[in-house]
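Handout for the seminar on molecular recognition.
Each group receives one record of this type.
Step one: identify the two inputs.
Step two: read the structure output and locate the region that could contact zinc ion.
Step three: write two sentences on what you found, then compare them with the reference statements printed after the record.
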Amino acid sequence: MATKTGQCLCGAVKLTANNVPSTFNICYCDMCKRWAGGRWMGIYIANQDLELTGKDAVTALATSDWAERAFCNKCGSSLWYKVTDGPYSDGYSIGVGLLNDTSDLTLDTEYYTDRKTHAYDFPDGRKQMTEAEVLAFFVPAEEGEPE
Ligand SMILES: [Zn+2]
Ligand SMILES: [Zn+2]
């Protein structure tokens, strides 16, 4: 578990993350594709392990009743996906591209693989979950769409 620093494109938002895992995930859902320009590459950071500066430059958009996507309102960089309600609201999915050093990170799971752009594939061995599998895993039956 490492400590890593990062920032958005313009530098208005800076972060220090503690206890950073060595793996990240990718999401190909339609909302992530539009928000992040093709796919979301996120790394889990627990709420208490994220220190942010430049919060005035952060706009968090509630993209469902239970999750938000945040971006820098100066430069447009995608910052995080965060579940805001329920058992998975204990952390952030921070954009891997914000981090200054990603040299030790490896890909763990691909979400919404049935929604991905099929122009490329990663080598075998990744955990892959379709939209239906993601919904079944993360969303209580009565909650509806996760996006
Ligand atoms: Zn920025
Ligand atoms: Zn997504």
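Reference statements: DSSP finds two helices and eleven strands in the chain. The helical segments are 30-36, 131-138.
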